[in-house]
Design a protein that fits this description.
The complex is a heterodimer.
Chain A: H1 2-22, H2 31-39, H3 48-82, H4 87-90, H5 92-119, H6 132-136, H7 140-149, E1 155-159, H8 163-172, E2 178-181, H9 191-199, E3 210-214, H10 215-219, E4 230-232
Parallel strand pairs in A: 1-2, 1-3
Antiparallel strand pairs in A: 3-4
Helix pairs in contact in A: 1-3, 3-5
Chain B: H1 2-24, H2 33-57, H3 65-80, H4 97-116, H5 121-136, H6 160-171, H7 178-200, H8 203-215, H9 236-253, H10 259-275, H11 277-293, H12 298-323, H13 337-355, H14 358-361, H15 364-379, H16 385-403, H17 409-434, H18 437-444
Helix pairs in contact in B: 1-2, 1-3, 1-6, 1-7, 2-6, 2-7, 2-10, 2-12, 4-7, 4-8, 5-6, 6-7, 7-8, 7-9, 8-17, 8-18, 9-10, 9-11, 9-17, 10-11, 10-12, 11-12, 11-16, 13-16, 13-17, 15-17
The chains are: A alpha/beta, B mainly alpha.
Chain lengths: 235, 445
C-alpha cells in the first residue's frame, strides 16, 4: 500500500512538473553552465545572432523534452500505482518506464495520425507524379519559372540563408550544377552588384554560363513584388 | 506511376533477397510472413545495393537491369536449390495481439505519411541529386560526386541508398517522390519487422522492449522534432543493417552461429558501411568490440572483417576519391587538453540531453540503461561487457566528431546525435533483451 501511495505522489509531482513546463516557451541551461559558456566562448559560432538563435532553438527543444518526459513518467507512475501486477514481471522502475513510454508514444502517435488524416485530400499530401506544390509549397510557380529560364548545363549560385528556398531550388533545378553561397545579401547591395562581384570569382566558372539566385527575394515573394530573383553572372 | 514503380522496385528487392534469406536464415522458413518479407527485403537491399555500387564504380548507369537479374536468379534458385534445413513451427513464438495491433498501426501510419508527404531537406539536397546522377552515368564520370563545392556533394553519404533509389528516380517524373519514398520506407518496415521478430523471441523483456521501440516517437512524423520517417533522413537503413550485424555477431560470439550467420554478418557489415559514413565506423566498433571482449569466435571476427572490407571495396574507393578535397577530421584536436575540456563539457552535456530526449526517443534509452545496470548488479559486468564496450565506443565516436571537426553542437547535435542514437537503439534493445533473465529462464526451460 505504501508503495502505491508513493507512486501516486510521484505521479502528482511529475504531473505538476509537466504542467509548469507547459506554461513556458523555453528552458535554458542552468546558470553555472551558461557562465561556463561565456567564459569559454566557442569560435565556431560565426555570429552572435546565430549563437542566440541556436540557444533559443535548443531551449525550445529542452522545454518539450522535459515536459514530455515528466508527463510520461507521471502517467507511468499512475498506471503502476493502479495496476501493480504490471510490475510483477519486470520490476517497478521498468514498469513505470514501459507504461510511461508507451503512453507517450500513443499520445504523440495519435497526434501525428490526426495531422496525417487532416493532410490527406489537401495539397500537403499526394502521391501523384507532380508533387512540386506538396514539396515546396508557395515557391512552386517561382521555381518552375526558374527551371524554364536557366539552361540545363549552366551553373546556379544560390546566395542567402533561407533554408526552404535553398532546398526548393536544389530539388527543382537538377541537373544544373548548384553552388550554395551561405551568406545574406547586405541591404545596401543590389542583386546586380552581387552578380558583378561573383563574376570575378571562380565558383562554377567551368560551366558555359552562370546564374545567381537571391534566396531572400525568392522567399519574400519574388518578382511579383518587384524583387529580382535571378540574374546572369556572365551576360 | 511513380508509386507503382516504387512498389515494383520493393518487390524486386524482396525477390532478390528471398532465396538468400531462406538459405541463410532457416528460422525464417517457419516464421510469420511479415518476418520472412522483412529479412528477404533486408538481404535483397544489401545484395542489390552492393552490386549496384560495384556496377556504378565500373562506369555503368544504374537502372532496373541488375535488380531484375538478381531477382530472377533468386527465383530460379528457390526452385533448383530449396532450403534443406527444417525447423519446427514452435521455434517462433506468437506475438501478443495488442502488440501486433500497435506494430500494425505504426507501420500503416508511417507508410501513409511516407508515400504522401514531401521529401525534406537532406533528401531533396543530397539523396535525390545523387540518385538521379547515378541513374544517368557511372559514379566516376559524374562531376556531382567529384566536385566538393557543389551543393549536393556530401562526403558522409555513401552510395547504397542512392543506388537503391536510382532505378526508380531514373524512370519517374522530375517532380515525383512517392516511388523512391516507397523504396526507402519499405526498409523502415523491414527494420520494424526484423526488430519485432528478434525481440519477440527474447522473452517477456524482449516484448516490452519491442512495445517501447514501436512507441518511440521517431517512427512517426512529429511537429516538435525532426523524426526518422522517410521524409528526409534515411536512418532506418543503417539501423536495419546494424541490427542484422549485431544479431549475427551475437550468435557467432556465443558459439551458436554457423557459416550462414557468418555470411549474413558479412553482408550486413558491407551494406552498413555503404549506407552511411558513420555506418563504416559502426562496423569497426562492432568488430573491435567483438575482438576485445569475446574469446570465442575471434577467427570469425577476422573473417567478417575481411569479408566486409571486400564488399566495402567500391564504397571505400569512391569515398577515397572524393574525401581528399574536404578537410574534415582533425585528430590533433583530440590531443589538446584545453580544447578537450573547454569544448568537451558542453558537448558531453548536449549529448546527455539528447539521450534523455523523450520527444524523439521516448523513454526507451532510460529503460535500456536501467536494465543493463540491474543485470550487471545481479550477474556481474561480464554479461554486458559486449554492450558496455560498444556503448563506450559509440559515445567516444560522437564526442570525437564534435571535438575534432568544425561541427558545433548547438547547430548540429539535435539532429546528428538523434540520428546516431536512433541507428543504435534497435541493436542495443536486442542485446539487452538477449541478456534478460526471463529469456535465460525460457531458454533453459
Amino acid at each position: 500500500m505504501a508503495l502505491r501511495i508513493s507512486l501516486f505522489i510521484l505521479s502528482l509531482l511529475f504531473g505538476l512538473g509537466a504542467f509548469v513546463l507547459h506554461g513556458r516557451d523555453v528552458v535554458y541551461r542552468p546558470a553555472f553552465f551558461q557562465k561556463w559558456e561565456v567564459d569559454h566562448p566557442d569560435v565556431r559560432y560565426p555570429t552572435e545572432w546565430q549563437r542566440v538563435h541556436f540557444e533559443n532553438t535548443e531551449g525550445g527543444h529542452r522545454r518539450n523534452d522535459w515536459m514530455l518526459m515528466a508527463g510520461a513518467l507521471a502517467v507511468g507512475c499512475l498506471l503502476v500505482a493502479f495496476r501493480p501486477n504490471i510490475a510483477s514481471q519486470i520490476g517497478i522502475p521498468a514498469a513505470v518506464l514501459c507504461c510511461g513510454g508507451i503512453a507517450l508514444g500513443l499520445g504523440l502517435g495519435a497526434k501525428a495520425g490526426g495531422n496525417l488524416f487532416g493532410h490527406i485530400g489537401t495539397a500537403k499530401w499526394n502521391v501523384r507524379d507532380d508533387a512540386l506544390v506538396t514539396a515546396v509549397g508557395p515557391l512552386a510557380p517561382i521555381v518552375r519559372d526558374l527551371r524554364d529560364r536557366i539552361p540545363e548545363d549552366h551553373a546556379v549560385l544560390l546566395v542567402g540563408l533561407e533554408d526552404s528556398a535553398l532546398t526548393a531550388t536544389s530539388w527543382t533545378l537538377y541537373p544544373r550544377p548548384i553552388y550554395a553561397i551561405t551568406r545574406g545579401i547586405p541591404g545596401y547591395m543590389q542583386l546586380g552588384e552581387v552578380a558583378a562581384e561573383l563574376s570575378k570569382g571562380p565558383v562554377g566558372s567551368q560551366h558555359p554560363g552562370r546564374w545567381v539566385i537571391d534566396l531572400a527575394a525568392m522567399s519574400a515573394g519574388g518578382e511579383e513584388r518587384g524583387l529580382p530573383i535571378l540574374l546572369p553572372i556572365d551576360p | 506511376m511513380s508509386l507503382l514503380t516504387g512498389i515494383a522496385a520493393v518487390a524486386l528487392l524482396a525477390l532478390a533477397g528471398w532465396w538468400p534469406s531462406v538459405r541463410l536464415v532457416p528460422v525464417m522458413a517457419v516464421g510469420p510472413w511479415w518476418a520472412r518479407f522483412s529479412i528477404a527485403l533486408c538481404l535483397g537491399a544489401a545484395i542489390v545495393g552492393l552490386v549496384q555500387i560495384a556496377l556504378s564504380a565500373c562506369g555503368m548507369p544504374l537502372g532496373f537491369t541488375a535488380p531484375l537479374i538478381l531477382a530472377a536468379i533468386s527465383v530460379v534458385l528457390c526452385r533448383v536449390a530449396p532450403a534443406t534445413e527444417t525447423l519446427e513451427q514452435s521455434a517462433v513464438p506468437a506475438m501478443p495481439r495488442l502488440l501486433a495491433c500497435g506494430l500494425l498501426t505504426v507501420a500503416l501510419l508511417g507508410s501513409l505519411e511516407a508515400v504522401g508527404s514531401p521529401f525534406r531537406s537532406d533528401a531533396m539536397r543530397f539523396w535525390m541529386p545523387k540518385s538521379r546522377a547515378l541513374a544517368t552515368s557511372g559514379v566516376t564520370e559524374s562531376p556531382l560526386f567529384m566536385e566538393a563545392g557543389r551543393l549536393s556533394f556530401h562526403r558522409d553519404y555513401p552510395l547504397l541508398v542512392p543506388s537503391l533509389l536510382a532505378p526508380v528516380f531514373g524512370v519517374t517524373a522530375l517532380d515525383a517522390a512517392a516511388g523512391p519514398k516507397m523504396v526507402l520506407h519499405s526498409l523502415q518496415l523491414a527494420l520494424l519487422g526484423l526488430a519485432a521478430f528478434l525481440l519477440c523471441r527474447a522473452g517477456s523483456r524482449g516484448r516490452w522492449l519491442l512495445a517501447l521501440l514501436v512507441a518511440t516517437p521517431m517512427f512517426l512524423r512529429l511537429e516538435q522534432r525532426e523524426s526518422m520517417t522517410t521524409t528526409g533522413f534515411v536512418e532506418a537503413v543503417p539501423a536495419l543493417f546494424l541490427l542484422l550485424l549485431v544479431a549475427g555477431v551475437d550468435r557467432l560470439r556465443k558459439g551458436e552461429g554457423n557459416g550462414a550467420d557468418l555470411i549474413v554478418a558479412i553482408l550486413a557489415a558491407g551494406a552498413l558501411g555503404a549506407a552511411k559514413l558513420e555506418g563504416q565506423v559502426a562496423v569497426l566498433l562492432v568488430l573491435g568490440t567483438w575482438l576485445l571482449v569475446g574469446p570465442q569466435g575471434r577467427p570469425a571476427a577476422f573473417r567478417v572483417g575481411v569479408g566486409a572490407l571486400f564488399l566495402l571495396g567500391p564504397t571505400l574507393w569512391i569515398q577515397g576519391q572524393v574525401a581528399s578535397e574536404v578537410p574534415a577530421f582533425r585528430p590533433g584536436d583530440l590531443l589538446d587538453v584545453e580544447h578537450l575540456v573547454t569544448r568537451g563539457i558542453p558537448v558531453a552535456a548536449g549529448l546527455f540531453e539528447r539521450f534523455l530526449d523523450g520527444s524523439a526517443l521516448g523513454l526507451l534509452p532510460l529503460l535500456l540503461v536501467g536494465w543493463a545496470i540491474a543485470d550487471a548488479k545481479r550477474e556481474g559486468m561480464r554479461q554486458h561487457a559486449f554492450s558496455l564496450v560498444l556503448v563506450l565506443g559509440v559515445a567516444a565516436f560522437l564526442m570525437s566528431v564534435y571535438l575534432a571537426t568544425t561541427m558545433h553542437p548547438g547547430r548540429h547535435i539535435h539532429t546528428s546525435a538523434h540520428r546516431l542514437i536512433f541507428q543504435w537503439l534497435p541493436a542495443f534493445a536486442f542485446l539487452i533483451a538477449q541478456a534478460g533473465p526471463s529469456d535465460t529462464k525460457e531458454r533453459k526451460a
